[in-house]
Amino acid sequence: MRILDPWSITDVEDYNRLIEVFGIEVMSEDILKQLPFLNRYFRRKIVFGHRDFQVIVKAIKNSEEYAVMSGIKPSSIYHLGSKITAEQIVYLQQLSKKARVFYAIADIEAWEDNGIPFEKSLEYAVDNVADLITLGLDLKRAYIYLQSREPRVLRWGYLFARGLTRNLLESIYGEKHLGMYMTAMVQVGDILLPQHPDFGGPKPTIVPVGVDQDPHIRLTRDLARKYSGKFKFVPPASVYHKLQWSLKGPGHKMSKRDPMSCLTLNDSPEKASIKIRNAFTGGRETAELQKKLGGKPEVCAVYQLALYHIDDDEKVRQIFEECKQGLRLCGECKHEVAELFANFLRNYQHRKKTNIERARRIIEDLVAGY
Ligand code: SF4
User: Fold this and answer.
1) CATH at residue 295
2) How are strands ordered across the β-sheet holding 237-241?
3) Best mutation site among 4, 247, 323, 339 for ligand 1, i.e. most ligand atoms within 8 A of its Cβ?
4) Average pLDDT over the chain, rounded to an integer
C-alpha cells in the first residue's frame, strides 16, 4: 500500500506561488529539527513559510531574550482562524523561558475597519484574552495592551509615517480610507514596540500570522531598516500559516460575517456539530463512486478541520488514508469529526469559564491605568 502524507496537501501550489512571488522563505526540515519540540501546526506543515525565523532559532539555542508579537482585532469572539494564531503565540512563548509575549488589542483597527465603538471592543477583548489564557499563555511573561491607550505605538506610528506617500500605501494595501492607512502605521508601532527602549531596546522579534498579513510585515521590516541608524532595530521575523477555510471549503476564508460556516470557540458543542454536518466535503457524487475512487480530503472542509484542530496524529492520518482509499463515507466521517470537535469544545469551554474573570480584571486594570 502506498504511504500517503496528509501533512503536505491543501493548496500547496498556491502557497508555493506566494513563496515565489513575495520571497517568503520555506519552513525547511533543517530549521524544524533545531526546535526543542514542534506543535501541531509546525509538525503538519500548516506553518509553511517564514522571514528570518533562523534569528529566533539562534536566540532559543543561545538562551537569549526574544519577543513574540501579535494581537487581535476585538471585533468579535475567537473563531478557528484566531485560534491558530493564538496557539502559535503560546507555542513560540513555550520554546524558551527567555521569550516574552506582546499582545495588542487592536481597538483602533476594530473602529476603523468594522466601526466597533471602543467601549464595545472592551467586551470582546475580555473574551479574547480569556481564550488566550485558556490556550496556554503564561501571563507572567506577557505584556497585554490596548492599542488606543499605548502612547508608544501611536508616537512611533506617526514618527515612521514620515516620508511614506499615499501612493506607496495604496500599492501595498489597495485603495482604503485614510483611517485604514493610519491603522497600518499604528501596526508598525505595535510590531516594533518590543524593541522600544522602555522594554530593553533592540531584540529579535517574531510575529506569527496568517499569510494574508504579510504586507504589514514587509512594510515594518522596510521601516525597521530605514530607521535602524537611530533605533538599531532588528528587522522583525515572521512565521506564516495557511489560512483556515470556512466550512464552505476552499476559496472561502473563515469569517465571523458568515456565522453558519464559521466555527467559534463559544459555539455550543451541539451547534458546532450541526455546522460540521452541513460542511462542504470532498466526497464523490455517490457512495459507489466514493468506494471506487476514494474521496478528496485535500479539498474537504471536514478534513481540514481535523488536520488543523484534532491533536491525535494517528486519528487524522486514519481519516486521510481511509478517505483516499474509499473506505470511509462522508456522512459517518462528518459524524466522527463533529464528535471529536464537540468533545474538545466541552473540555475547552469548561476551562475557559474560570479565566473570564481573570481576563476582565486585566482589561479593567488596563483602562484604569490610563
Ligand atoms: Fe472529507 Fe471525510 Fe468525505 Fe473524505 S470521507 S471527503 S475526509 S468528509
Assistant:
1) 1.10.240.10
2) 25-26, 47-51, 237-241, 205-210, 66-72, 99-105, 142-146
3) 323
4) 92
Size (the chain), residues: 370
- Ligand 1 centroid to Cα of residue 11, in Å, is 17
Q: Which whole number is the average pLDDT over 215-237? A: 94
**Which residue has better confidence, 112 or 273?**
273
Whether 95 shows a pLDDT value over 70: the answer reads: yes
Task: Assess whether 141 and 232 both reside in one domain.
Answer: yes
Task: Identify whether residues 158 and 286 lie together within a single domain.
Answer: no
Whole-number percent of the chain with pLDDT over 90: 77
Q: Tell me the pLDDT tens digit for each residue of 39-70.
A: 999 999 999 999 999 999 999 999 999 999 99
What whole-number distance in Å separates Cα of residue 89 and Cα of residue 111? 24
Residue 215 and residue 122 share a domain: yes
Q: What stretches of the chain show up as alpha helix (H) in DSSP? A: 12-22, 29-32, 40-43, 53-61, 80-94, 107-114, 118-134, 151-161, 166-173, 178-192, 214-226, 228-231, 269-277, 287-293, 301-309, 313-324, 330-368
Residue 105, SS3 per DSSP: strand
- Helices 80-94 and 118-134, axial angle in degrees (round to 10): 60
> Is the pTM here over 0.85, yes or no?
yes
Residue 310: which of 288, 349, 343, 332 has the closest Cα?
Answer: 343
CA distance 107 to 114: 10
Q: Is residue 366 part of a domain?
A: no
Cα–ligand 1 centroid distance for 325 (angstroms): 11
Q: What is the CATH number of the domain that holds 156?
A: 3.40.50.620
Q: Which three cell numbers stand for residue 66?
A: 526574544
With contact defined as beta carbons under 8 Å apart, do 296 and 330 qualify?
A: no
Do the beta carbons of residue 91 and residue 71 sit within 8 Å?
A: no
What confidence score (pLDDT) does residue 3 get? 29
What is the distance in A from the centroid of ligand 1 to the CA of 277? 11
Q: How far apart are CA 84 and CA 278, in angstroms?
A: 22
With contact defined as beta carbons under 8 Å apart, do 104 and 157 qualify?
A: no
Please tell me whether residues 206 and 296 are part of one structural domain: no
Ligand 1 pocket, 310 CB below 6 A?
Answer: no
Its domain, for residue 296, covers: 267-353
Residue 319, ligand 1, Cβ within 6 A: yes
